[in-house]
Write a structure and sequence with these properties.
single chain; 334 residues; alpha+beta; 2 domains; 3-stranded mixed sheet; 14 strands; globular
């Protein structure tokens, strides 16, 4: 007869060993995905590695026709307030702050501009970046906005102090725009030159933008007259047959379009008819022409609404920037 201690030992041994054996059999031949396990928690990168005083820059105020010396970080408060909605996610605002800072320092590194030779940038958004001073914002937006939204803007700028976007160790010219059509554009398909960090990428979150789609309906006679105002020698015999989209860019915008006896650029049509973008389709009705347009802006670089969509999905500011600007690095200058 077995002793009680031996019986108890066998019971305990079986109790402990059985689940282990079952686990081994269950996972036999199954690969463990280490990357999935590692990515359960997002790796946070701290780019704040330098702590120096921020420099002053010379800004030409086109409203007062004067140059002003402004601390670059305070200048960025006014840019962020004008360039991006303050109800956007903080990570999108941080991405915009770094893009705006990079724009200024790129301009500074690459010499004076003919429109403001003694200033790095100006306050005219049609030429440089939108900028409004604290006093202007207080007057336009009110005290409540200053207490809440302005503090959010300051947070986005302060927490990315000195950080810029670089390519080949040089500060880039980070173009940005409001809303893509679902994909951004290659630089050479919109502007004159090919830039390695301004490549066409997917931008899937722009459909939340109020300007994601738009429409223009124009009388056929007005359509012809507007074109003749821009091109004296254009001949359109039958508008229904004389308008044809010939090619599109990688991002979806109209590249070449045949209108009568001319081949035009999609951006020519955008400019003439004041369309929101060059990504459009054309439908001919009995007496009217319908432009169905996707996106808002030139389409090159970072989509602001796309950036906000990424931020809402949990992407951090440096992930957003790395998505929209190909092959870049973020560097802390001060």
């Amino acid at each position: 007869m077995n002793s009680p201690l031996k019986v108890l030992g066998l019971v305990l041994f079986g109790t402990i060993l059985t689940p282990i054996i079952i686990s081994i059999i269950s996972y036999w031949g199954v690969d463990i995905d280490e990357k999935t396990y590692e990515n359960n928690e997002k790796q946070i990168i701290n780019y704040e590695t330098v702590n120096k005083n921020s420099p002053e820059i010379v800004v030409y105020n086109h409203k007062t026709d004067k140059n002003e010396n402004i601390d670059i970080e305070k200048y960025l408060y006014g840019v962020l307030a004008g360039e991006m909605p303050t109800n956007f996610d903080i990570e999108a605002l941080k991405a915009q702050a770094i893009a705006a800072r990079s724009y200024v320092l790129h301009k500074q590194e690459n010499g004076p501009n003919n429109k403001h030779e003694k200033a790095v940038v100006c306050t005219d958004h049609t030429h440089c970046q939108e900028y409004k001073s604290y006093e202007e914002l207080k007057e336009i937006k009110g005290e409540d906005w200053i207490k809440n939204d302005y503090e959010k803007i300051k947070k986005a700028v302060d927490e990315t102090k000195g950080q810029v976007i670089t390519y080949d160790d040089k500060v880039i010219l980070p173009l940005y725009f409001s809303t893509s059509s679902g994909k951004t554009e290659n630089s050479e398909e919109v502007f004159s030159g090919e830039t390695p960090y301004l490549r066409s990428v997917e931008s899937p979150y722009d459909d939340e933008s109020p300007k994601y789609v738009s429409q223009l309906i124009i009388n056929k006679d007005d359509f012809i007259n507007k074109l003749k105002n821009s091109f004296d020698d254009i001949i359109i015999s039958n508008v229904n047959n004389d308008v044809k989209i010939l090619s599109r860019s990688e991002g979806g915008s109209v590249n070449q379009i045949k209108v009568g006896n001319k081949e035009l650029k999609g951006r020519d049509i955008r400019s003439i008819f004041n369309l929101n973008s060059s990504n459009f389709d054309i439908t001919m009705n009995e007496n009217e022409i319908v432009f169905d347009v996707k996106g808002f802006g030139h389409g090159v670089g970072m989509s602001q609404w796309g950036a906000n969509g990424m931020a809402k999905e949990g992407y951090l500011y440096y992930e957003i920037l790395s998505h929209y600007y190909t092959g870049i690095k973020i560097k802390d200058l001060y």
